[in-house]
Amino acid sequence: MAKSVLITGCSQGGMGDALAQEFHRRGFKVFASARNLKKTEHLVAMGIQVVELDVLDEKLVDAAVDIVRESTGGKLDYLINNAAIESCTGILDTDIAKAKHLFDTNLWSVITVTKAFIPLLRAARGTVVNHSSVGSKVCMPFLGIYSASKAGLDQISDAMRMEFRSIGVSVVILSTAGVKTRMLENREPMFVPEGSIFARHKTEVEKLKNEEKVVGIMPDEFAKTVVPKLLKKSKPTRIWAGESATSVWLTLLLFPQWMIDWVVTSVAGAGPYFKYQDQQEA
Fold first, then answer.
1. SS (H, E, C) the chain
2. Which positions carry the signal peptide feature in this UniProt record (predicted)?
């Protein structure tokens, strides 16, 4: 029987989509999941099985487990927790309800989904792949909430990796940098509210983030890099992938935090908005 993989967040144009296609090309039984199955019709045309799955809906999670169990005889070789959303806002401008929803999606759902599939993974001595971000290590301005969720995912993944050794399940963190996906299209527009510490730069900051362009490699190139590493017998604990991923890793090794802060704000084009301003001038 072919090995199997279930991937969350496989809407067209994303990294989950590309991973599903690459695993399929390599002969895997792929379960490509998404909230909106209309966004996976191209995968159906390729012969890939799609599964309706909202990672925040435990009934749909349980239903997905049943589908995989019945199809594979109770085993799952790879679970890729890929579904995520992004938020762009200043920390003091954060809508707490929206931030909690982001954490529910990017962090807590990973535990929910993994817990549901662990019997199948255990039966296959399988692998959990948690899709994090280089943002978990190097935070960009206005992406603090998103980066915090990914930093939390890194720590949860480290704990999983140590704990799951006792049941024969491997855990890999996927730290991704620049990949040209549609995530920015799905992100809520940046909005600087009245009273924000960035209010005097409202127009510039909103323009900076809302007209931001995705820079990076194409999703299929990303998948062709990642999948072979996941298929190695000896699993890596972390895979760095995407444009500039290696540069981020080296930066963390070589430079002090104050220098990283300076580089990041400069690269983000936000340097002028973080200079100290006397309260009377603000």
1. CCCEEEECCCCCCCHHHHHHHHHHHCCCEEEEEECCHHHHHHHHHCCCEEEECCCCCHHHHHHHHHHHHHHHCCCCCEEEECCCCCCCCCHHHCCHHHHHHHHHHHHHHHHHHHHHHHHHHHHHCCEEEEECCHHHCCCCCCCHHHHHHHHHHHHHHHHHHHHHHHHCCEEEEEEECEECCCHHHHCCCCCCCCCCCCHHHHHHHHHHHHCCCCCCECHHHHHHHHHHHHCCCCCCCEEEECECHHHHHHHHHHCCHHHHHHHHHHHCCCHHHHCCCCCCCC
2. none
59 is catalytic: no
Total number of domains constituting the chain: 1
Is residue 280, in this structure, part of any structural domain at all? no
Annotated active-site residue 275? The verdict is no
Annotated catalytic residue: which of 78, 146, 180, 273? 146
Assigned domain for 281 exists: no
From 3, 75, 137, 150, active-site residue: 150
Average pLDDT of span 83-101: 91
